[in-house]
Design brief:
By secondary structure, the protein is mostly helical. Helix content is 52%, strand content 0%.
Length: 166
């Protein structure tokens, strides 16, 4: 029952409909079938290069709208939704590099935000699948829509990289 409530709250927060959930599950099934295939088209920046000021500004805008309700505007994991959605524990996004030996794991953060590549567990539903939520309505999963999703997620990742504490 608690899982059903949390799932319903997450759907509400993400603005997902039942059709979107079916799309998520279909996408996940395709990902499992493709197993070794990497459908996140953005190559891993190696080494990570700072993004343009414009990309970071766009990432900050999307972060504040979609991520800050749980992770807070400063990224420390204490946003206002923590008091509304029972049982969620958003990560402190300012310590990602520290937790990874001083290296910002761009690709891992990107995959976590996208959500479609990670096989879901009950904990995965604490965070929306932004790779689905950011799709252009009526053009979901088209190459154009996927490119725009990648661009938005990459901008959010670039912004999160700027939040890292030493």
């Amino acid at each position: 029952m608690k899982l059903e409530f949390r799932f319903a709250q997450t759907l509400r927060l993400a603005g997902l409909s039942l059709l979107s959930v079916v799309s998520i599950l279909t996408t996940l099934a395709a990902g499992v079938a493709a197993q070794g295939e990497d459908y996140l088209a953005t190559p891993t920046p190696a080494p990570w290069q700072p993004a343009s000021a414009e990309a970071i500004a766009q990432g900050r805008t999307d972060f504040n709208r979609y991520c800050a309700p749980c992770h807070s505007a400063d990224g420390r994991g204490n946003g206002p939704e923590v008091k509304v959605i029972p049982g969620i524990k958003p990560k402190d996004l300012t310590t990602i590099s520290t937790r990874n030996g001083g290296v910002f794991p761009y690709r891992d953060v990107e995959a976590t935000i996208d959500g479609r590549k990670i096989i879901p567990s009950h904990k995965r539903f604490d965070m929306p699948f932004w790779g689905v939520s950011f799709q252009q309505q009526g053009r979901e999963f088209s190459p154009e829509s996927e490119a725009k999703v990648r661009q938005r997620i990459d901008a959010i990742v670039d912004y999160i990289a700027t939040l890292q504490r030493p």
